[in-house]
Amino acid sequence: MLNKIAMASGLALLSLVAAPQAFAWDKIGSKNIGHGGDRDVAIAHGLEHHRQFRMCVRGSGVHVRDLDLRFANGGHQDISVQSHLGNGACTRVVDLKGNDRNIRKIAVRYERLRKGNKATATFWAR
Fold this sequence. Notes:
This protein has one helix at about 1-20; strands at about 25-35, 40-45, 50-60, 60-70, 75-85, 95, 105-110, 120-125. By secondary structure, it is α+β, with helices and mostly antiparallel strands.
């Protein structure tokens, strides 16, 4: 009986240690957003393959219209966002279509910021 309890406790502890790594986000890029344009393209870093994506904003709030992810195999995925992201906010988690995807470029369409306002978009995948 004690062996079963010890084994169950060990498995529970192992799952708690392994879980954060399984759900950790990789920073794959960032882009400064100014008042000059309404579309920016960021190059994604790394050769990892991912299943999910999200974008977060720091600084001034940004109204994001949509994202277009370009993959290493030539494919792409359009993501409609249509929401305002305030300082520290992120888009919903987006499941990438297909098998594990290698994101190469991220195109962001957004409403222009007021003059003098700046924001940084950070792109995450896991």
